[in-house]
Amino acid sequence: MTANKEELTFNEVVLKYPDFPKLIILKLDLYYRGVVYSDTLVEKFDGKNPGPMILRDGTSVLTIPGTYQTEPYTIDLIDGKAGIFFEDAFIDEVDFTPHPAYYGKTTSSGTPMQSVATARPQRLDLWVHRLCDFWKGGNQCKFCTVNLIFKDRIKSKKDASLDTGDIYETVREALKEPGRFSQITVTGGADQGEDGTFDTETQRYIEVLQAIGENFSGRRFPSQLLSCGLSKKQLKKLHNETGLLSYCPDIEVWDNNLFSLICPGKEKFIGWKGYVKSMLDAVEIFGEGNVYTNIVAGCEMADPHGFKTVEDALKSNFEGCEYLAKHGVSMMSIVWKPVKGALLYGKKQPPLEYYVRLAQGLHDIRAAYGLEVHSDDFKHCGNHADSDLCRID
Fold first, then answer.
1. CA 213 to CA 40: how far, in whole Å?
2. What does the pLDDT look like over 268-319, one tens digit per residue?
3. Any idea of the CA torsion for 155, 156, 162, 166, to the nearest 10 degrees?
4. CA 183, CA 62: separation in Å to the nearest integer?
5. What are the sequence ranges of the domains in the chain?
6. pLDDT tens digit sequence for 132-151
7. pTM across the whole model
8. The CATH classification of domain 113-392, taken from the options 3.65.10.20, 3.10.150.10, 3.20.20.70, 3.40.50.720
């Protein structure tokens, strides 16, 4: 597979890191390059998204077709079976997660359940507020396209939020499929409210989690909230009034100075210190190992302000991971893709080898501090190559 002259190719990376699973390197490269679906594959699925990909060792890949800067992989059919191709060469076989039984059904209000909750291999995802207020004034994270994704479906701010009745019914229906789901993840765009306190966002999550919790008999249920960095008071309210099990405020960029440049809205309304404080406060409330954060790995190397070398970027991220691990917080990574519509579109990604080294390093640091990423492991998320490595511990 081709790469920039100074970068190792996929096969060269595989040879250089023989102890790193080849199919997890392939997963990283699928995220790194992106994928396109052939017309034949699209026809097989009646023009619909076939769902998360599953590699032959069970590794899940959640990338979807888009507009990418690099030459993407193609997912095509050969002899009726799906395969991964690059520059017309067959790379490996692939399958897709079967659609859950609730797809195609509607709630009592007539809302398609698939529009309420989407499915990963073993996880339900609910994006409960489909606007990010950080986009006002151009303060969105520079790698983000979320408001563009949902813009055609939202006519007013009221349309941006899911109905709790629809949420309750969709979760109830999804849980009727035995053994299919083992976690529910709730997230949404930033909503600081008119007073700038994020109390509006907090209360929305409380109401959503309470609606979900009506489907469970126990006090707590397997769940994770991905949100802005909330205050200790707000976190206690979430913990006390819902069955939430784990909390994940995504810091996106560990380096303080680059955080302010790449995530101006997060810096303006919460700040890097606010995100770190939220994580540490959350450990007191939810317990060690139940608090997470993610970095969008690679955007910290984007020109003109990013790190100039892979070594500097790795050093920063490993320092952040270790600092948080000492305090019971798990830092994880996803692959930055400079997709069309994001402010960082057109910027160069770091090489594939960077992501392999980062994944191994983050995994090793967490393991050294005894952190097990139950809520974000290969079963419950699938976005993180570093948590995929837990399978071979």
1. 42
2. 999 999 999 999 999 999 999 999 999 999 999 999 999 999 999 999 999 9
3. -70
4. 16
5. 10-96, 113-392
6. 999 999 999 999 999 998 87
7. 0.94
8. 3.20.20.70
